[in-house]
Amino acid sequence: MLENEKPEGRVRTFLEEVRAELRKVTWPTRRELYGASAVVITVAILLTVGIGVLDSILGFLMKVLISFGV
Question: To which protein family does this belong (predicted)?
Fold first, then answer.
């Protein structure tokens, strides 16, 4: 089927199929989008702070261990 088509025809068919699939997509409402974005940003901030705190604690422990000559 597609093997017999010219490259231009295959590209056109592909783009038509993409467009048809995009019509089937259920897009989020603005409120859902803002809610999901807020969750992602909040989690990213919490993880950043958590990793920073953990890094500081481990850095302090390494300095203590090195100062004892272990």
Answer: Belongs to the SecE/SEC61-gamma family.
Residues in CB range of 13: below 8 A, 6 or more apart: 2, 5
Q: Which residues contact 27 (CB under 8 A, 6 or more apart)?
A: none
Tens-digit pLDDT profile for residues 42-63: 999 999 999 999 999 999 999 9
- Answer yes or no: pTM beyond 0.85: no
Nearest to 49 by CA among 57, 37, 38: 57
CA 48 – CA 42 distance, rounded (Å): 10
